[in-house]
Design brief:
The longest helix is centred in the N-terminal third of the chain and has 24 residues. The strands form 3 sheets. This protein has a 7-stranded mixed β-sheet, with helices on both faces. The chain has a 6-stranded antiparallel β-sheet with strand order 3-2-1-6-5-4, with helices on one face. It has 19 helices and 15 strands. By secondary structure, the protein is of the alpha/beta class. The termini are far apart. Bound molecules: zinc ion. Zinc ion binds next to loops.
């Protein structure tokens, strides 16, 4: 301030003394003493915040690539100049902000992220990507950019840009390398601002095909028998993000021919199957799984995919559809194949209807696959060999290492671990008499049912994944 000729040395000393007594900010003290004007006070605040920004910037330097850093500088100067940002600026394709947001999205797509997270943090804005099921840190941007970034996403998702107090959701098409990706944008007000999560639906990344997903040949055969039936029900169960939809699409693509009328009810539609008639659930407009299913039955379908059996009405309609000559695919939220029987009985469906309609139940999860470029063998003295009953002199286990191909994580892509319960005549009888799940399990085991962890351990033995991954996914300790 002295350098800028705003105050003298004496005035500063008086100010400092006063400040010691009052504990107020030096600028306000000088203002209240009448040494500086309000205009000077503002100038002073800008100077100090500029200094602060500079030191903050140093901190970011480590994380932000140069290009982004320049964008940030341009963006912040733009917002300082304009005060508030108008919608026009948010839309302009040349705006640095639009470039920054595009960069955030493109980086995510290039890293094969399924979700892009924009998290307000006490010290700035954290950008993270979910890759192969795990969140990865990407960059840390100055706080000033939070609202502009959130607003830009809202414009893209055709959401209300003025509303920041309630959660909103929207969607956008994002052009990338001659194709269009679907973005599902969700905002949620939290302390410190709005949190944004963008789900990236990249139809070209969805690897359709039971083999691609990681089903073993002998099990694909088993599934094929059920898929080829003219009617009945096939259920896929597992937590969110366990690849249920991909399995269902893979099944549908096997039977997708001109001679079959396939309908789907989904929320959201993640992949477009040629020839299938797919519809998107729209609860606001009144298109729910139940109302949609009712109408589809009047559209002369052969095969119906019901995204999820959430309630009794949907479950009943789906069961009825499979009883009346349709092949129905659906999902349900349970942890394993056998307990989904109990779950459907709980919803209020008669055990007899369940046993006569359901042909097979697949329960599944995803584990990360070891990167083929860099995986290294587990040393022969590791206890892992004895745990799995493997002789280290004849076969090897592998562990992650990390290389440029896998972004240093040691893993690349994911593989399914699963169990397939066939409703055989004997299991049908057990369901009809409401036998305990344990009895069903015992009977299934005698008929060759392999539990999920057995399939998972087989994948460890084959060097596809690791024991840690399997323990994590199955919550079992090995
Ligand atoms: Zn690698």
């Amino acid at each position: 301030m002295i350098e800028q000729g705003l105050i003298t040395q004496e005035q500063l000393e008086i100010g400092i003394q006063e400040q010691r007594k009052s504990g107020e900010l030096l600028g306000s003290v000088l203002f209240s003493l009448g040494f500086i004007s309000q205009k000077d006070l503002f100038k002073l605040l800008t100077i100090s915040s500029a200094n602060q920004e500079e030191s903050e910037q140093d901190k970011y330097n480590a994380d932000i690539p140069l290009e982004i850093e320049n964008l940030v500088k341009q963006s912040s100067s733009l917002f300082q100049r304009e005060g508030a940002i108008g919608k026009k600026e948010l839309d302009s394709a040349y705006s640095p902000l639009v470039n920054l947001v595009e960069k955030i999205i493109v980086d995510g797509i290039q890293r094969s992220a399924t979700d892009i997270h924009i998290n307000p943090d006490a010290k700035g804005v954290r950008i993270r990507y979910r890759v192969d099921g795990v969140l990865q840190h990407s960059m840390f941007l100055p706080n000033e950019l939070l609202n502009p970034i959130v607003s830009r996403f809202k414009v893209m998702g055709r959401m209300n840009i003025a509303e920041s107090r309630i959660p909103q959701d929207g969607s956008a098409e994002f052009p990338y390398k001659n194709r269009k990706l679907d973005l599902r944008i969700s905002t949620f007000p939290i302390i410190g601002g709005e949190n944004v999560v963008v789900r990236v639906l990249d139809k070209s990344k969805l690897r359709i095909g039971l083999e691609n997903l990681g089903f073993f040949d002998e099990d694909i055969e088993k599934l094929n028998e059920s898929i080829q039936l003219p009617f009945g029900m096939i259920l896929v169960t597992g937590p969110t993000g366990s690849g249920k939809t991909t399995t269902l699409y893979s099944c549908l693509s096997i039977i997708n021919t001109v001679s079959r009328n396939i309908f789907t009810l989904e929320d959201p539609v993640e992949y477009q199957l040629p020839m299938a008639r797919q519809s998107q659930i729209n609860v606001k407009a009144g298109l729910t799984f139940a109302t949609g299913l009712r109408s589809i039955l009047r559209q002369d379908p052969d095969v119906i995919l019901v995204g999820e059996m959430r309630d009794a009405e949907t479950a009943e309609l789906a069961i009825r559809a499979s009883l009346t000559g349709h092949l129905v695919f659906s999902t349900i939220h349970t942890n394993d194949a056998i307990s989904s029987i109990a779950r459907i009985i709980d919803i209020g469906i008669d055990p007899f209807l369940i046993s006569t309609t359901i042909d097979c139940i697949v329960a599944q999860r995803l584990v990360r696959s070891l990167c083929e470029e860099c995986k290294e063998s587990v040393p022969p003295f590791s206890p892992q060999y004895s745990k799995l009953g493997i002789d280290p002199s004849t076969s090897q286990l592998f562990r992650p290492k990390g290389c440029p191909a896998c972004d240093g994580s040691g893993f690349k892509g994911r593989s399914v671990i699963y169990e397939i319960l066939k409703i055989t005549p004997k299991i049908r009888d057990l369901i009809n008499v409401k036998a305990s799940l344990e009895e069903v399990r015992r009977q299934a085991a005698t008929e060759g049912f392999r539990e999920m962890h057995e399939v998972a351990l087989e994948k460890v033995r084959r060097g596809i994944t690791t024991l840690d991954e399997v323990s994590h996914a199955t919550r079992m300790h090995f």
